[in-house]
Amino acid sequence: MLVSKLNPSDVQMREIIGKKIFRRRKQLRLTQEKIAKKINVTFQQVQKFEKGTNGLVDLRIRSLAAALKIPESRIGFLIWKYNKKNKDNV
């Protein structure tokens, strides 16, 4: 079994994105189950996205953005903002 280790900045980014997903879901008063149905995954997978345990692939980001009524460009900005901030501290 091949196990890849994430560097701390990748883990941080997953956690930050997960918190934003959680907050947006709560804003819309949606359950993890409802989001899961909309993006065709289990509610456990949504939990893992929100906790930062699992990362999101491009396809999932787009479907999740649609389910949470977030423009794709806004998700990209949030990721870019994090990366810029992280690079400034290096």
Spatial gap, N to C terminus: 33 Å
Shape designation: globular
| DSSP E strands, number | 0
Question: Beta-strand level of the residues, as a percent range?
Answer: under 5%
Q: Name the average pLDDT.
A: 78
Q: Number of helical segments?
A: 5
The major beta sheet can be summarized as: none
Order of helices and strands: HHHHH
Q: Give the helix level as a range of percent.
A: over 70%
Poorly predicted residue ranges:
86-90
Q: Tell me the structural class.
A: mainly alpha
From the alpha carbons, calculate the radius of gyration and give it in angstroms. 13 Å
Written account of the structure:
71% of the residues lie in helices and 0% in strands. The protein is an all-alpha fold and 90 residues long. Helix 1 packs antiparallel against helix 5 and helix 2 crosses helix 3. The protein is globular, with a radius of gyration of 13 Å. The protein starts with 7 loop residues before the first helix and ends with a helix. The C terminus is likely disordered.
Topology of helices and strands:
Layout: H1 8-27, H2 32-39, H3 43-51, H4 58-67, H5 72-88
Feature tags:
0% strand, mainly alpha, single chain
Give a brief description.
By secondary structure, the protein is mostly helical. 71% of the residues lie in helices and 0% in strands.
